């Protein structure tokens, strides 16, 4: 049954979303049943239930989002109709797509007839349950000869190895990687034969050379990051990089991972879901850690796309800080190097941040909000309305 609150949502960039899903399916080499589920069930869920949308309430707003003439069906005077815009590059969409398709592609062929009846919520719940079980249980594995691994790149005290797609012990190496990393890449029903579970889905892709698998190892051959790459026009592109339990690799392994990416000249969108969690972006042809970016224009672009990046930039410019202040006041409340003027602006937008904002001047947010203390920015005094003060009393 459809959620009544979501009835009447009209997505103004629906064609763009359909094209994006089709491109994703092609890039991931999805099977026909999974592709069909994506184009129907997942698309329907985006239209009806995806929460991170922009409501379009004027023709000016429409023109700011889409190029071209405003279509005849865009009628703002219609009751119970809501026009929305969905950012196709939204990080949450990428995460959900990866989880849903990973789960469905790993199912037995005898289950495909159930796909049309499976909702996004059901698929995500199943994925979460299975990955929680993997992270909580101690998986067993068989020791290998390590001949299925090829030493490729070393940095500091770590080494990246590549899994040999044609070696007979490939499935056993994958099973060991998953057992120690507590993720699903080598989760087989039968590790010796390389059959069943999520592992069968991935080993087929590796053997077909649709992806190449790499692992970050220490001197004791223990894994700390698992990377899957694919080739496009002769260049490596990042599919995913995972630390333990499908989390991002921890800070200790970031420099080595960045060096590896740049060694292979790995490409990916500026903000890949996995590298973002590591504080790494792809800029000007190479991987870089966000904290080391000094260029003001690049800082602004990063914060404009995701305000939470302000926490990862080591030396943000004043304009970058102001941009974060206006986009997401909550972020500024926790920054020590934000100015008092910026903190005043956060209170103008979100008075509930009163207890979290600390000032360098001898005053408190509550006194400012009650107009007991005066404060000005470039000579302009800020007066807080009684309505805003009322919210905190």
Walkthrough of the structure:
Mean pLDDT is 85; it is low at 1-6 and 386-393. The protein starts with 8 loop residues before the first strand and ends with a helix. The longest helix has 18 residues, at 32-49. It contains 15 helices and twelve strands. It has helices spanning 14-28, 32-49, 59-65, 91-105, 120-136, 170-181, 197-207, 254-264, 273-278, 296-305, 318-327, 329-332, 340-349, 365-369, 386-390; strands at 9-11, 54-55, 82-85, 149-155, 158-163, 212-217, 223-232, 235-242, 280-283, 286-289, 376-377, 380-381. The protein is an alpha+beta fold.
Topology:
Layout: E1 9-11, H1 14-28, H2 32-49, E2 54-55, H3 59-65, E3 82-85, H4 91-105, H5 120-136, E4 149-155, E5 158-163, H6 170-181, H7 197-207, E6 212-217, E7 223-232, E8 235-242, H8 254-264, H9 273-278, E9 280-283, E10 286-289, H10 296-305, H11 318-327, H12 329-332, H13 340-349, H14 365-369, E11 376-377, E12 380-381, H15 386-390
Parallel strand pairs: 1-3
Antiparallel strand pairs: 2-3, 4-5, 5-6, 6-7, 7-8, 9-10, 11-12
Name the average pLDDT.
85
Question: What is the CATH C-level name of the largest domain?
Answer: Alpha Beta
Poorly predicted runs: 1-6, 386-393
DSSP strand content: 5-15%
Cα separation of the termini: 42 Å
User: Shape from CA axes?
Assistant: globular
How many separate helices? 15
Which terms summarize this structure?
single chain; 393 residues; alpha+beta; Aminopeptidase; 3 domains; 5-stranded antiparallel β-sheet; 3-stranded mixed β-sheet; 40% helix; disordered N terminus; disordered C terminus
